[in-house]
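Quick review question:
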């Protein structure tokens, strides 16, 4: 996906506003911008032609400036780090379909991961086609879906969500892809930081915890798994890609420990997180 630097920076409130953001915040803003554009393109392809003007108008309203956001912090009922399920980009939130009594991972993909599934399916498809291990393919499939409930430190939250059900390697890859995205690894085909430089025009200074995490992961025996998630993450914003969950059903069956009680009802340490995704409209 081509990114117009001027449009993106303008969407954040201009160069002055961008200069006040941390690199972590800039990276998150860029990925959110790209994901939103991807979903807009997919929606436009599936919508009747007569809806196009309305969609374009809605898209123009999706990215308030940083100055506007700063001014709204104490007047808004939600913060930017809140997950996709809890906010609407325009208008009101939509009524969600009732999930099965014993929900499976595939049910969450089709009924709750609506904002993140396209990008994650593209990432997993690229990993599958390039011959990655099933641990890496699964990690790519799952790496961003936790953003349906929270965006802050999504790598760590995502790993926690899936840890009881997937392998140690896949968990490691999900947890640390967030930190690795800041550091180039040309030997493995990762140049995402160059995109940041083209967009923001300055050197990186990730927050100390990100730097410390990178230094640890770089020396870890599972570094390769986490790095491959970033490699396949980078190129998974193709507005014209056609993706489906079908090629991954068997991989999920072999590598995801689906609880017989259903996700959210197995008394695992993360059951409450799955119930939150299932029932985001619950008041308590």
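Suggested answer, residue by residue:
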């Amino acid at each position: 996906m081509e990114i117009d630097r001027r449009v993106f920076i303008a969407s954040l409130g201009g160069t002055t506003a961008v200069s006040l953001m941390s690199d972590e915040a800039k990276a998150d803003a860029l990925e959110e911008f790209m994901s939103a554009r991807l979903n807009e393109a997919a929606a436009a392809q599936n919508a009747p032609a007569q809806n196009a003007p309305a969609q374009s108008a809605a898209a123009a309203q999706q990215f308030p400036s940083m100055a506007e956001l700063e001014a709204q912090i104490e007047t808004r009922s939600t913060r930017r780090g809140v997950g996709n399920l809890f906010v609407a980009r325009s208008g009101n939130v939509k009524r969600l379909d009732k999930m099965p009594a014993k929900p499976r991972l595939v049910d969450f993909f089709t009924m709750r991961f609506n904002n993140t599934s396209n990008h994650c399916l593209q990432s997993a498809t690229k990993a599958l086609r390039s011959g990655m291990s099933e641990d890496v393919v699964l990690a790519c499939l799952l790496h961003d879906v936790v953003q349906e409930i929270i965006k802050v430190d999504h790598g760590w939250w995502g790993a926690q969500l899936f840890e009881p059900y997937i392998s140690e390697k896949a968990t490691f890859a999900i947890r640390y892809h967030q930190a690795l995205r800041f550091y180039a690894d040309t030997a493995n085909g990762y140049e995402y930081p160059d995109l940041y430089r083209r967009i923001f025009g300055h050197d990186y200074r990730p927050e100390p915890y990100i730097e410390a995490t990178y230094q640890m992961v770089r020396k870890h025996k599972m570094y390769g798994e986490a790095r491959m998630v970033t490699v396949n993450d980078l190129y998974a914003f193709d507005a014209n890609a056609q993706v489906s969950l079908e090629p991954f059903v068997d991989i999920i069956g072999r590598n995801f420990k689906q609880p017989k009680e259903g996700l959210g009802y197995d008394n695992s340490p993360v059951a409450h997180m799955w119930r939150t995704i299932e029932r985001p409209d619950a008041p308590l």
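Why it works: Residues 23-46 form the longest helix (24 residues). The two ends are 40 Å apart (CA to CA).
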